[in-house]
């Protein structure tokens, strides 16, 4: 049975069974091809097969997502590691990482042909960031402090939104730098703006994007958390196997996210560039967290980033990093308990096209 037929049969078998609704907040309002572990389970029915109707909600930043989760507005949140740590250390919120998705790939992009050659040259300048509620703000402030710049006095950090709006702010001189994650910086370069990327090279050795939830949610519904991560792991493996297939499925299932402004071949390459940039950080996270189980979250991986935040005065105390991660015996093994070869073969053949309309 082909993957398409298997998908259809699975859906039909569950048509009369009520699906449990689950909501996930993502700290970005641009739900494009760069989030395959969250978007592909919807398109390919991985979560529906597990019995869940999942809604991915784009919000202004990781901090807003955390606030929504803390107030009961969403069940899980995709947030930056800095926000996960701050939630526990500074806010007393028992948030737990349940899936590792990336390393810190934020960077400060400036015009390649412009006068800014180093962080020092940004003194007195304006720096744009997607939102003042994003987890990238602590990273930017720390980067500035490391280079002798007071982020409160020596620069002006402003929210510029995402996509074309942010790029236009740089092109017009409203800001002299853009602090964004790598796939966003790649999108700016796709649009024809050559950038010099300034960042701390040690960031790539620290965890960042993490899927998390509250300890209370884990206690109340551990099966749901396990199923959500398992579906996301399937999608991760699918994406790593065949990025171009992911691009095709994403465009079919979420047509409003398809880029515009160029011919189809160029648009296809642009989105593939974005996805490959994201896959690079996903693979780095996989290796950072042990390189054995998809989505595994290693508490020890957070030691360096917590020390970084503490030394940069972003947090006033530290905790045992074991407290940042889900503790449920066999959890990560269970979230990897699926037929990996079947997913790989399905991705290689890209024989699931049309299933999103089933």
TrEMBL record:
<feature type="domain" description="SsuA/THI5-like">
    <location>
        <begin position="43"/>
        <end position="244"/>
    </location>
</feature>
<dbReference type="Pfam" id="PF09084">
    <property type="entry name" value="NMT1"/>
</dbReference>
<keyword id="KW-0808">Transferase</keyword>
<dbReference type="InterPro" id="IPR015168">
    <property type="entry name" value="SsuA/THI5"/>
</dbReference>
<protein>
    <submittedName>
        <fullName>Myristoyl transferase</fullName>
    </submittedName>
</protein>
<dbReference type="GO" id="GO:0016740">
    <property type="term" value="F:transferase activity"/>
</dbReference>
């Amino acid at each position: 049975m082909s993957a398409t037929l298997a998908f259809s049969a699975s859906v039909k078998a569950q048509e009369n069974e009520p699906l449990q609704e689950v909501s996930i907040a993502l700290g970005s309002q641009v739900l494009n091809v760069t989030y395959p572990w969250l978007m592909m389970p919807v398109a390919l029915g991985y979560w529906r097969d597990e019995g869940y109707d999942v809604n991915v909600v784009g919000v202004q930043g990781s901090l807003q997502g955390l606030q929504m989760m803390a107030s009961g507005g969403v069940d899980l949140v995709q947030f930056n590691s800095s926000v996960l740590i701050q939630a526990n250390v500074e806010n007393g919120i028992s948030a737990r990482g349940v899936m590792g998705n990336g390393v810190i790939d934020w960077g400060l992009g400036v015009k390649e042909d412009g006068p800014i050659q180093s962080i020092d040259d940004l003194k007195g300048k304006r720096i744009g960031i997607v939102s003042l509620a994003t987890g990238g703000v602590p990273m930017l402030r720390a980067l500035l402090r490391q280079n002798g710049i007071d982020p409160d006095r020596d620069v002006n950090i402003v929210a510029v939104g995402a996509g074309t709006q942010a790029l236009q702010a740089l092109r017009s001189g409203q800001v002299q730098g853009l602090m964004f994650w790598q796939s966003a910086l790649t999108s700016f370069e796709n649009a024809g703006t050559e950038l010099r990327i300034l960042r701390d090279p040690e960031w790539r050795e620290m965890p960042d994007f993490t899927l998390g939830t509250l300890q209370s949610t884990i206690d109340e519904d551990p099966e749901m958390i396990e199923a959500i991560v398992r579906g996301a792991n399937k999608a991760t493996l699918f994406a790593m196997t065949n990025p171009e297939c992911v691009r095709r499925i994403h465009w079919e299932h979420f047509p409003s996210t398809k880029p515009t402004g160029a011919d189809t071949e160029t648009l296809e390459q642009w989105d593939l560039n974005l996805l490959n940039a994201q896959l690079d950080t996903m693979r780095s996270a996989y290796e950072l967290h042990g390189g054995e189980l998809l989505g595994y979250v290693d508490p020890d991986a957070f030691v360096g980033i917590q020390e970084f935040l503490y030394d940069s005065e972003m947090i006033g105390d530290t905790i045992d990093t074991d407290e940042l991660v889900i503790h449920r015996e066999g959890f990560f093994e269970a979230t990897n308990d699926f037929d990996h070869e079947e997913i790989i073969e399905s991705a290689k053949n890209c024989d699931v096209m049309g299933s999103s309309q089933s």
